[in-house]
Structures are given as structure tokens and as C-alpha cells.
């Protein structure tokens, strides 16, 4: 009697879990064996621009090349809906709140925050992205190298309260001694190499004020044929990363499949927005 090795007997939830498990293992390299169905062939994975990749991790030089080649379709032309919708929950009743935008590139969200009367600080590895931001938004600026910090330059608005540090995000705590009331994280945590997520959160812990709030925008997606970034983020894994010092409230979970993400070959693409506060604020956050 022949035994069927297909998925025909699996429930929809089991099929989804199988895809998720296979997808997660694909992040760390090509899968040579499917534990449910036996040996399978190596799967070719591509990034969001259709390029075949063998290692999904992107180095600093890799990101600089992305900017140099103009492959920045990930930048939204309009202010992000989550920021518009939930920024008041970040600010609360704070007077003159300060916002931090990690891996900010040329995000128009920063201009919008300035228009709301907030002070903004960004961090971006690619100087080209920072130059484009100030040019496209018509903001006069100064640019000064930071002493004792090689390859670090700070761009400051001449008349508007915005500063953008051109440097490696992980070196930021050594570059500036500042904490922020609010953090808007769209596309930063989702793009960071998965092996660096714990380090990423350690930096956030240093940058967020004790009473500060962090609005995080991440995704659920499969990596069977899509290499990323963005990378899949399970809620349980996020809790493991920051649950010892933070509380999380999911504000939104929504199907975000769009024409571009369809070209990646993913079977699902879900956006999740979290409001993150330090443990001492748990009660206030839940109200």
C-alpha cells in the first residue's frame, strides 16, 4: 500500500504552521529536508527586488549599496497610517515630547512629526538617505562630524528641531547620551538581521525614557521562497526578546498583502502594530 506524503490530510492550521516552520528555518539557510515529507530539493530564495540571495543577512556595506543603487522602494510616499492613528498614545499629555526614529532613511514621517510640533531625532547608516530627506523636504541644515567618533556625522535642521545621526545604529549609545519620550519604529526592527534582534532591543532599552513609549510596526510573512527583509516576527518571539523589561499591547493586526509584496512570492503578509512600555507602566498602558 502506497503512503501519501502530500499535505492533503493536514488541517488548514497545520498547513499554515508547517509553512511557518519551514519558512523560519529558511531564514538561516536553504532547507534540504522537510521533516514531514522527507527530502526535498534546495529552494532558491529571492529578495524584494527579485535578486537571488544565498544569505538573507545584509551587511552595512550592503545597505550602503542599496542606497547607492536607488533600491529604496520600501520608503512610503505618505505618512504611515499607524503613526497618524496611534501617535497620541505615544505622546499622551507630555509637553514637547521627543521622538526617535531608528534607521530613518528619508522617511516623510519625520517631517509630519515636526509639523505636529515635536522634536525629532533619527539614525541612519546611509548618508545619502539623510541628504535626500533634507533636500526633498526643503529643510535647511548643517552637517558636522562628531569628534572621537569615526564616520559619524550629525545633520541638524537650522530652524527646525530635528537631528539625524549618520552612524551605525549599534554605536548610537556611545555617540549620544540622550533618552527619548517616544520611539516610532517602522521598518527598522523588521529589516534588522534576525541574529541582531537581541542587540537591537538592548539599544532601545538604553534610548527609551523610563516613562517612554515605543510604537513598533512588524510583519508576519513566510520565507519559503522570499529571503527578506522584511523578516517574519512572531509575537511570542518578540515577548521573549523584551518581555523581561517591557509590556506589549497589540493595537492592530491586519492583512497587508499588496501588489509589491505579491511579487515576493509570499503566501501571506500581515502587519502588526504594538504599543510597548516599560513594566512599571503596564497598568497605565492597559487603560
How does this structure look, described?
It is globular, with a radius of gyration of 20 Å. It has helices at 12-27, 60-68, 81-91, 108-115, 127-137, 172-175, 197-207, 235-242, 259-262, 282-286; strands at 33-34, 38-39, 45-46, 52-53, 98-101, 119-124, 141-145, 153-157, 162-166, 180-186, 208-221, 246-255, 269-278. 30% of the residues lie in helices and 26% in strands. It is an alpha/beta fold. The strands form three sheets. A nine-stranded mixed β-sheet has the order 7-8-9-6-5-10-11-13-12. Strands 1-2 form a two-stranded antiparallel sheet. Strand 8 (153-157) and strand 9 (162-166) form a beta hairpin.
Helix content: 25-40%
Structural class: alpha/beta
Mean pLDDT: 86
Number of helices: 10
Distance between the termini: 60 Å
The outline comes out as globular
- How big is the Rg? 20 Å
Spatial sequence of strands, sheet with the most strands: 7-8-9-6-5-10-11-13-12
Secondary structure tally: strands: 13
What series of H and E elements makes up the topology? HEEEEHHEHEHEEEHEHEHEHEH
Low-pLDDT sequence parts:
1-8, 12-16, 22-34, 282-287
Largest sheet: 9 strands, mixed
**Which percent range describes the beta-strand content?**
25-35%
Keywords, separated by commas or semicolons:
single chain; 287 residues; alpha/beta; two-stranded antiparallel sheet; 10 helices; 13 strands; globular; disordered N terminus
List the helices and strands and how they pair.
Elements (H helix, E strand, L loop, with lengths): L11 H16 L5 E2 L3 E2 L5 E2 L5 E2 L6 H9 L12 H11 L6 E4 L6 H8 L3 E6 L2 H11 L3 E5 L7 E5 L4 E5 L5 H4 L4 E7 L10 H11 E14 L13 H8 L3 E10 L3 H4 L6 E10 L3 H5 L1
Amino acid at each position: 500500500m502506497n503512503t501519501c506524503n502530500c499535505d492533503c490530510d493536514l488541517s488548514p492550521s497545520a498547513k499554515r504552521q508547517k509553512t511557518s516552520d519551514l519558512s523560519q528555518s529558511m531564514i538561516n539557510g536553504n532547507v534540504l529536508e522537510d521533516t514531514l515529507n522527507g527530502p526535498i530539493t534546495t529552494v532558491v530564495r529571492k529578495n524584494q527586488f527579485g535578486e537571488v540571495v544565498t544569505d538573507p543577512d545584509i551587511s552595512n556595506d550592503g545597505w550602503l549599496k542599496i542606497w547607492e543603487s536607488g533600491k529604496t522602494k520600501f520608503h512610503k510616499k505618505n505618512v504611515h497610517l499607524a503613526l497618524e492613528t496611534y501617535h497620541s498614545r505615544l505622546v499622551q499629555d507630555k509637553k514637547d515630547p521627543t521622538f526617535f526614529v531608528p534607521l530613518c532613511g528619508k522617511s516623510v514621517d519625520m517631517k509630519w512629526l515636526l509639523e505636529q510640533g515635536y522634536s525629532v531625532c533619527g539614525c541612519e547608516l546611509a548618508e545619502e538617505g539623510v541628504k535626500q530627506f533634507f533636500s526633498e523636504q526643503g529643510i535647511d541644515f548643517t552637517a558636522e562630524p562628531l569628534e572621537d567618533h569615526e564616520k559619524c556625522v550629525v545633520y541638524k535642521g537650522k530652524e527646525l528641531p530635528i537631528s539625524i545621526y549618520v552612524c551605525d545604529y549599534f554605536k548610537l549609545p556611545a555617540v549620544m547620551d540622550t533618552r527619548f519620550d517616544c520611539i516610532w519604529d517602522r521598518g527598522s526592527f523588521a529589516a534588522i538581521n534576525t541574529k541582531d534582534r537581541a542587540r537591537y532591543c538592548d539599544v532601545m532599552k538604553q534610548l527609551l525614557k523610563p516613562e517612554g513609549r515605543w510604537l513598533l510596526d512588524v510583519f508576519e510573512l513566510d520565507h519559503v521562497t522570499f529571503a527578506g527583509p522584511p523578516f517574519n516576527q512572531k509575537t511570542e518571539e518578540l515577548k521573549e526578546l523584551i518581555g523581561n523589561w517591557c509590556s506589549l499591547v497589540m493595537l492592530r493586526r491586519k492583512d497587508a498583502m499588496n501588489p509589491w509584496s505579491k511579487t515576493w512570492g509570499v503566501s501571506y503578509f500581515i502587519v502588526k502594530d504594538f504599543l510597548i512600555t516599560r513594566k512599571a507602566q503596564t497598568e497605565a498602558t492597559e487603560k
